[in-house]
Amino acid sequence: MSSTVLAAVSDVPLSAERLARENLPLAKYLAVEKARTALHVDLDDLLSAAYLGLAVASLEYDPSRGVPFGAYARTKITWAILSEMRAADPAGERSRDKIERVRVATELVRVRTGRTATLAEVAAESGLDAETVTRMQLLDEMVRTATSFEARFEGDDGRQAVDLTDSVILPEHAAEQAETQRMLERIVAALPDQMRQVIRGVYLEERMVKDVALDLDVSHAYVSKLRRIGLTLMREALDAWENGTEPDRSTKAKAAFFDGVFGAAAAPVVAVPA
């Protein structure tokens, strides 16, 4: 968790720790989103990278520059996640460049001739020798199999298409990330309408606070308030889900939100006199 990362840094300002805690749902959401298409990286590693990026953002953030913390944090978190993905990439950066050259060359020959390119044609088009082309094609296939959602099949019984890497290679990891993704989507969907638009706009669509405020016809300060309350609700919902605890439904607004996430709370049992 980001609190663990922050704890490793001496003399962390309270404001930085507050920013990190308030924006934990953002870090988790971005990590889980990326995990859907980066199955070669363990979800826990992506989460750790996201929390580290959030911690760095909270420590380095300078509000005097006029950049909203959400946008600044998103950049740092995304950079940290991509760094983790590059470190775990089975192909590597140099091989990725060659794989792309082979892909482009293959497509150019296909468009020009109307048929599948031969090995010699791809080699000539890409400027690589035949042995390198063959090796890059094999590596490309391995990476696609390990990391992509492109290999899908439709079940004979009409079930929804299933990703082969989810069902065969990493079933436990895929199930965990799918469950977390569904819960995060449910939490965002349960937010009040304007609050949901703010969270999606600022964090998921990378829009400026002023633009979101203009769309909603409200003030910049009001959008910031909605963002802060929305993140707090998301964090409380995630904590309740992960810990199996009952969320605080002490107000009508909170009760409506948590009912939308978890369902209505069970009515208290009233003893009936004999």
Describe the structure in brief:
70% of the residues lie in helices and 1% in strands. With 274 residues, it is mostly helical. It has a two-stranded antiparallel sheet.
Structure description:
By secondary structure, the chain is mainly α. It has three domains: 2-88, RNA polymerase sigma factor, region 2, helix turn helix motif (Rna Polymerase Sigma Factor, Chain: A), CATH 1.10.1740.10; 93-147; 171-245, Winged helix-like DNA-binding domain superfamily/Winged helix DNA-binding domain (Arc Repressor Mutant, subunit A), CATH 1.10.10.10. The protein is 70% helix and 1% strand. It has 14 helices and two strands; from the N terminus they run ααααααααββαααααα. The protein has helices at residues 2-7, 14-22, 24-35, 43-60, 69-88, 93-113, 119-126, 130-147, 164-169, 171-190, 193-204, 209-216, 220-243, 252-262; strands at 152-153, 162-163. Strands 1-2 form a two-stranded antiparallel ribbon. A hairpin with an 8-residue loop joins strand 1 (152-153) and strand 2. Helix 3 runs antiparallel to helix 4 (43-60) and helix 10 (171-190) crosses helix 13. It is elongated. Mean pLDDT is 74; it is low at 1-12, 145-173 and 267-272.
